[in-house]
Amino acid sequence: MYSLTGLFMEFRCVQDCSQCCVEREYYPNTKFGKIGVLILPQEKERIESLAKQNQISVSILPRIGISKENNVDSIEVLAYQMMGIEENGNTCPFLDTESGKRSPHGGFPCKIYDERPLACKTYPLVESNPIILDQKCKFCKEGNTANENLNSEIESLLKIKNQMTTDAPFLWRYATGIGEEKYQSEIKKGWILEETMD
Question: pTM for the full model?
Answer without folding.
Answer: 0.84
